[in-house]
Write a sequence for this structure.
């Protein structure tokens, strides 16, 4: 009986950990001070870089949201096989400290998919 309780507890902990990990990006963005419009602009900047699939490390593009005062840039920081690692630096209005985020995208047919 004790063994099954331990397994059940481990399964619950694993499930909570997966849920927490899945929500971490949205939580990070919610606490960052960035607006949904800012994050849309960040994604558009990502798509611009990914559209230049041959782009190597160092390529970058900037974004600016005059409505919120936020701005930033996304840069191809490195390649891992066929995948690209993108590094975001986002500045919230009146902040000198950038919010930083790394995201990995791998090719899938004609698309790029967010990867772990």
């Amino acid at each position: 009986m004790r063994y099954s309780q331990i397994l059940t507890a481990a399964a619950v902990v694993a499930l909570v950990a997966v849920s927490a990990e899945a929500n971490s990006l949205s939580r990070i963005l919610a606490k960052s001070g960035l607006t949904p419009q800012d994050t849309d602009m960040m994604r558009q900047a990502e798509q611009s870089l990914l559209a230049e699939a041959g782009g190597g490390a160092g390529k970058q593009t900037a974004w600016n949201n005059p409505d919120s005062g936020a701005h930033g840039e996304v840069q191809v920081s490195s390649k891992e096989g066929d995948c690209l690692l993108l590094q975001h630096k986002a500045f919230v209005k009146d902040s000198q400290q950038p919010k930083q985020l790394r995201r990995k995208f791998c090719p899938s047919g004609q698309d790029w998919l967010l990867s772990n």
